[in-house]
Hints:
The chain is of the alpha/beta class and about 170 residues long. The chain has helices at about 15-25, 60-70, 100-110, 120-140, 150-160, 160-165; strands at about 5-10, 30, 40, 55-60, 75-80, 95-100, 145.
Amino acid sequence: MTTRTLITGMSATGKSSTVLALVAGGHRAVDLDADGWSERVPDDSAWAEAGADATDWRWHAGRVRRLLDEADGLLFVSGTSSNQGTFYGLLEHVVLLTVPTAVAVHRLATRTTSDFGKAPDELSRELELRDVVEPLLLAGACLVVDTSVTAQDEVAALVAEHGLQQACRA
Length: 170
């Protein structure tokens, strides 16, 4: 049986840490926000920044579709992209990771895995997008996890096959 699960959320909610915890637990998990799975493209989304040079970090549609189409057994993918909704029909579950804004701001300022969100303009844009994008992510999720109170290894355990099947049945 093939089960494909997307772990999504805004920046600093713990998507990458959850993928690492899943991999450490022996699961197949892919970070779609990484080079090779995503690319910078002109931003034509409804929430694009004003200006001719607005870009969006978007998943490579063909690569992601092949990954999901060819999945066998359990596959966890993580990330957030303006084109992710086009893949929902290929997924069994969508899990939204979330944190309060104050926690996100602190995590962005102190994280060591990426510089994204440290510059004032990036932080401002991320906070603006939280109000627009997170409700869209919530609408497609079968499970929401507040990672300010749940450690990444607990999140990984929750989204493993049996826990997620139970949580997403309701």
